[in-house]
């Protein structure tokens, strides 16, 4: 069976109700490949609006984070149960912006992934190295350092229900995309790292590339053997451009 292809939009703290409405209108009539999933991850206040207006069965919604607790006195946080309530299926976890600015440690990310899975959500687990780490030859050790606690926490068999997004920090929002060759090499490493635990699981996990993907560079990236789609930031805020990226996978 071939792996699912996924194009996911991470709006970060951008967008508004008008963009949410435009995106639904733009995507509802699109035809995608049978094995393709499109996911929109808006800021939490727009999730219900998107859910109510998406009629295309291949378009799903995701949140950008959850708290690792079920409920309680955690002002400003949202829980997996709330996403269940809205029938939101996906959640981005461990984005480099959260790791860098909101102190989401590798252990905390592992806890969140475990909690998301236990709640029936599909985590989109983001991993990636900084420019300094790449230049120092530490890309592979950094990626395994980020993956290992998640595998230890959930067990490799459960990892088949995780989507991984490789996002080199130096390529996020910078206009500097990783070349298709570098992205493929790194994805191949991620898959081989997973295969060192379980070869079948490694073959099943969709590996998305993220970092300055746009309508111009996406085709070459998506043509690589181990790139199963993308996690799109800036270019996902434009409906026409995002549609082109969805059609290129
Ligand atoms: O961080 C990203 C998606 O999660 C990538 O953002 P950009 O596509 O804006 O570089």
Automatic annotation (TrEMBL):
Any one Pfam family match given in the protein's UniProt record, by short name: TIM
Binding site for substrate: 10-12, 173, 212, 233-234
InterPro entries in alphabetical order: Aldolase_TIM, TIM_sf, TrioseP_Isoase_bac/euk, Triosephosphate_isomerase, Triosephosphate_isomerase_AS
Keyword Cytoplasm included in the entry's annotation: yes
Keywords for the protein's UniProt record, in alphabetical order: Cytoplasm, Gluconeogenesis, Glycolysis, Isomerase
Catalytic site: 95, 167
Class in the EC hierarchy, top level: isomerase
Pathway: Carbohydrate biosynthesis; gluconeogenesis; Carbohydrate metabolism; erythritol degradation; Carbohydrate degradation; glycolysis; D-glyceraldehyde 3-phosphate from glycerone phosphate: step 1/1
CDD domains reported in the protein's UniProt record: TIM (cd00311)
EC number(s) stated in the UniProt entry for this protein: 5.3.1.1
UniProt cross-references to SUPFAM superfamilies, sorted A to Z: Triosephosphate isomerase (TIM)
Protein localization: Cytoplasm
Keyword match Cytoplasm: yes
Catalytic activity from the UniProt record: D-glyceraldehyde 3-phosphate = dihydroxyacetone phosphate
Record GO terms (molecular function): triose-phosphate isomerase activity
Function of the molecule: Involved in the gluconeogenesis. Catalyzes stereospecifically the conversion of dihydroxyacetone phosphate (DHAP) to D-glyceraldehyde-3-phosphate (G3P).
Similarity field: Belongs to the triosephosphate isomerase family.
Subunit text: Homodimer.
Protein name: Triosephosphate isomerase
Species assigned in the record: Thalassotalea psychrophila
């Amino acid at each position: 069976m071939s792996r699912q292809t996924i194009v996911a939009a991470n709006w970060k703290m951008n967008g508004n109700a008008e963009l949410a409405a435009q995106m639904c209108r733009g995507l509802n009539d699109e035809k995608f490949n049978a094995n393709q999933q499109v996911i929109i991850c808006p800021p939490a206040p727009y999730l219900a609006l998107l859910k109510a207006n998406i009629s295309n069965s291949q378009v799903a919604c995701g949140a950008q984070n959850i708290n690792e607790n079920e409920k309680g006195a955690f002002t400003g946080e949202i829980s997996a149960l709330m996403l269940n309530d809205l029938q939101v299926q996906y959640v981005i976890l461990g984005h480099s912006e959260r790791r860098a600015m909101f102190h989401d440690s590798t252990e905390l990310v592992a806890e969140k992934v475990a909690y998301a899975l236990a709640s029936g959500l599909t985590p989109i687990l983001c991993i990636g190295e900084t420019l300094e780490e790449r230049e120092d030859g530490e890309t592979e050790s950094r990626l395994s350092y980020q993956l290992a606690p998640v595998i230890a926490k959930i067990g490799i068999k459960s990892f088949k229900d995780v989507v991984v997004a490789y996002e080199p920090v130096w390529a996020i929002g910078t206009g500097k995309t990783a070349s298709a060759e570098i992205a493929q090499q790194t994805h191949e490493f991620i898959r081989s790292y997973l295969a060192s635990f379980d070869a079948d699981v490694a073959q099943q996990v969709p590996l998305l590339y993220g970092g300055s993907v746009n309508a111009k560079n996406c085709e070459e990236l998506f043509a690589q053997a181990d790139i199963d789609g993308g996690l799109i930031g800036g270019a996902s805020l434009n409906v026409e451009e995002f549609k082109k990226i969805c059609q290129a996978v």
